[in-house]
Fold each of these.
Amino acid sequence: MASMHTTFTASGTFSLTDASGTTIFSYTPSFTTAPNTSSQVLYSGEHLAQTGGSELALADTSDDRAYLFVKNVDTDYSVELDLTEQESTSKEIADIKPGEFFFAPVELNSDGSGSSIQVTAATADQKVQYLIADAINN
Amino acid sequence: MPQNYTLNAQTSVSASSGTGFSQSASGNFTLNLTGIDQVQTGRLDIALTDTVVMAAPTYGKAVYIRNLDDTNFIEVHSAGVVDTDVIGILEPGEWMFFVLRDTQAVGASADTAVCTIEYFAVEIDSAA
């Protein structure tokens, strides 16, 4: 249904400076998608990543990609991100310490069915905040 | 000779539905890096086969990649095998940023034709 389309925007600023204060590089990327008329889901919230692993659901994702933003908002330990049921994946896609974030258009399994994002805290449970939105098929 | 650096990262994302519903999120952080050998940045052509974006680091890395092509998508993966351990898929103009504390290289491959990326890949030390 056209009225359910979703538009996604991402912008960032990244810079590296050396010990003398010289800027090595600076990037300010940004993009905004065209309205995605097949989009079915827009999830955001806060989740307790457990040491044994727990999942951010993607049950109703319609496409084979999703925009994924996850931030470790706790204070003590790192959190690993893994995509389950993703194409041939066995390694984590991020390892974020408190305050750090991950952002990428990630690949899901076929139409997204059966896919989930697993978050696993090191040492003790940690809170993460997230935003997940359907991305167009590639 | 290893050098010390400061990496600043900030990102804002938002998604808006045609219904008027919208959600947003943002983050920013600083990494103080000590004794760093690998700092790579610039533009790189990504072939249809695996193209090394960053060789295997000692402890981990912070990586930004933007697909500058205006037609075709690319895949970004851990280690060096196409279609395996995929971290992200970038359509034209899209970008990604991630921190991984592992010793895997970062590779990329194009799907249809060679694509150019804008990128940086910075090694992070064991304390970062």
Amino acid sequence: MTTGRKRFAAPQRLLHWLMAICILSMLFIGVGMVSTVTPKYLTLVQIHKPLGIAILVLALIRLALRIYYGSPSLPADLPEPMKLAAYLSQYILYALMIGMPLIGWGMLSAASYPVVLFGGVHLPSILPVSDSLHTLLWHAHYYLAFAFFAVILLHAAAILFHKLIRRDGVFETMAPVLRHDQPE
Amino acid sequence: MAQSPFPPGPLPVARLAIIAAVVGVVAVAFAYTAGWLSPHRLTPAKIVAGLAPPGGPALGHRRNHAKGICFTGTFEANGNGSALSKAQVFVPGQYPVVGRFNLATADPNAADAMVRVRGLGIRITPPDGQEWRSAMIDAPIFPVSTPQDFYELLTASASKEPDAMKNFIAAHPGFLTFVGWAKSAPWTASYAEERYNSLNSFLFIDGSGARHPIRWSLLPAAQPVPITPDELAKRGPDFLEQEITQRVAAAPQRWTLVITVANPGDPTADPNQAWPADRRTVEVGTLTVQQIEPERDGPCRDINYDPTVLPAGITTSDDPFPAARSAAYSRSYNSRTAEASYYPRTATGGKQ
């Protein structure tokens, strides 16, 4: 699913950076909220739920754009293990971006919590009330959050490696803006 | 020949260090946010651990108010509440309730006469799906003023240090008001004869957007009959559950939901302080308990009576407890639902 173009399409780049902010915020909100009993807890929970659904919607749009536009090819001289890591990390990130909000939504449903987005806007329950389902999903949500954060750190380290060390143009495929000395 | 990911030439140590620094800073910020670098932060985990008896928590059960029994019934709103809150739950009508009578103990097998504080949790579900959950107790005030004080109370009462409680009381004299109630208030032999109080302050939001600081109470229709704890003990360790089961089977039991509206300047942030008795009250409806079911297979079992599950029209106030309770209840819920095998449902038991 590669394309001849050298960069991701503008809507893809926009979504990438918007979602980067959303997802990093989400992970910080998640670990922050479960570690406090102050009124911040409620504020963070109230952000966590609608932001999660927003990420789900954006991820689905992004997946559609990815299928439509494809992605620039990796540098030909990139060693095979790094190519494999690049492909794998993309699959993993898409799976987490779509999976984590669904797991969270399902977890709340299985615990009979109302899924409040804001004010009077609720989402329907997507699973029956069940302590075993809740436990499974809660564990998944918890551990996958740390895995998600680890993958993002690796992703950031890898792209900085491309940018600062290999200088092979991979960073520029997703760069929000190009300096004018760089070719499109 | 294997390809190297590095370009030819010497290793760019400085640039590798930049990458490590960026990743490191983000990771440390994450660790800080998670509280891993702040061992003194009061976390839900600490509060829940502080509630556990010396032998550890009763697995599969609520970490506090562990002994309880489910009920179903209705809340019938009379419409008076709509002047204070736009929530549908106050519009005249009958809405289903799933609730739970309980004792404020971490031991699900505690004898009734050993537990001073009794509670009631309710979930009211109006047709618009905007639930109102509340967990109330029969004490007129909470023992302490802040979640931090509550944690210190838990720590002091579990402490082996002989002066721990004395020191706690010296630092938190408000606790004595609670002790005064606990020592002097009459006991009853029925969940149906208790008054249950929100203690925490919330805000009602009316149709115009105005906010009214309020507290609420459920006032029993049944006449309280005083009994000494010794007499209650003689009736058996689980008398309250037997009594409420028989009583409700004979006739539905009712409570009036009364809203107390604060005057400006009333201590809304401190559930250890009662509001003056002359504050305006509004009767907004009637809770009717129609059926009792044991908790093991009952409809209240998998409900977290989180006091911050509120409809549009009710919100939290400057009282710090609802947030702390929500955080701790969630932790308790996650633990106990994962331990369901220690509190098995009966083979034929249905689930909600």
Amino acid sequence: MSTVPDDLWYSKEHEWVRAEGDVATIGITHFAQEQLGDVVFVELPEKGATVRQSASLGVVESVKAASDIYAPISGEVMERNVKVIESPELVNSAPYGDGWMVKVRLADKGELRQLLSPADYRSHIGETAGAGGD
Amino acid sequence: MATAAATLRRTPLYERHAALGAKTVAFAGFEMPIQYAGIVAEHRAVRGSAGVFDLSHMGEFQFTGPGAGAVVDRLVSSDVAGLAPGQARYGLLCNERGTIVDDVIVYRVADREYLMVVNAANVAKDRAHVLAHLGKDAAFEDRSLGTALVAIQGPRAAEILAPRAEADVRGLPSFGVTRSRVAGAAATIARTGYTGEDGFEIFVANDAATRVWDALLAARGDAGIVPVGLGARDTLRLEARYSLYGNEIDETTDPIEAGLAWTCKLDKSFVGRDAIAARKAQGPGRRIVGLVVEGGVARHGHEVASDGRVVGRVTSGTYGPTVEKNIALAYVPTGLSKVGTTVAVRIRGRDVPATVVRTPFYRRPE
């Protein structure tokens, strides 16, 4: 499996978006889960909540620390992934699969164009890894 | 980041950590491995088999001479005078106000020789504290920078160390210490640790560190042992309810409220004794308790609330990989410290329910 699948959009904050019609599935990237380490807790908005692009959507906690998940696009939450709340380790084992976070009804499809393409995201994490390390 | 990193010290095992793909972090002025394969996997390896730790950042003070025992006994809260050669004990350095300067382990390595292991972040402060109380009958040497410390911890630790050590390490009692050799290098071997498991801490000169490290990790494949970073060291110690200096204890906390009265031998003279005895007689207004948190991970600094009012503060919190719960230690008013009491931890502005539980959170099977 590619660590940056070709069929997704990406945010600089390491979320991914799978857009199907006016529904967007959101998760965090392989790079993000690797940086976080073992994820032990996930906090997500309830169905019906409104999320706004670039605002905090929820929180993932690794053993060491809590990190915000930022909404890569705006919309209304149609479903949150109950499985990932019960088994947070899915974020590590299947970040693009069973580790997804929420499905959102897109408020403005135009927002997708503000996201990164897979190629752009690859170079984004290349830069991040090269400059900062940790 | 880059400029800060340039000033960090590295232990003699730094190249080994890099080769093992460790993520590193700045800790007490050292660039230390925080994790290798992952905190949860490393934690479980220590509980189930064994793990090897680089603790070379820790401080080592040596006291020698005819008055060494008396000097250390006066500095440390616990019964150092009662140690026979080859025995070690946990204790506290306190100030005259009766608050905690550091927590230490004192090893009576030989008749007139004591080793005091102190926290890395406190080496300079502890050295000043020790020198202020040293007197003339003992020689003191801070050997921190020349000494490496490798620990092996876990139920298989003795089995792995035994063929690599000259001493009979299986026969070494808990909190026993002996001078011997490991992988051919002169070593001080102690049956002590900070994980809640059986295990050993091995002190060697810096130039022998890689030899000892390589010899222990040579058992990797067959025994399932792994290198362990500071991340799992923290989750292991928290499940075992060991205090961490800077979290549970510091110069604003006293041994009574910190649950460390058992380390204070009040019928002897030591620095801080009178103030601690007074606090004990008075009864502490707050106490450290263990919490199990439902629906969030408590972290150092989070507020503890009761009936919507802030009543205390979390000192350490994490997900406990063995107990499989979100666990924390916190100071709460004595009236809320009883096991079974319900309080709340304020996590991101929300009051998340938490219950006071008996500690340690984890106790190793007999």
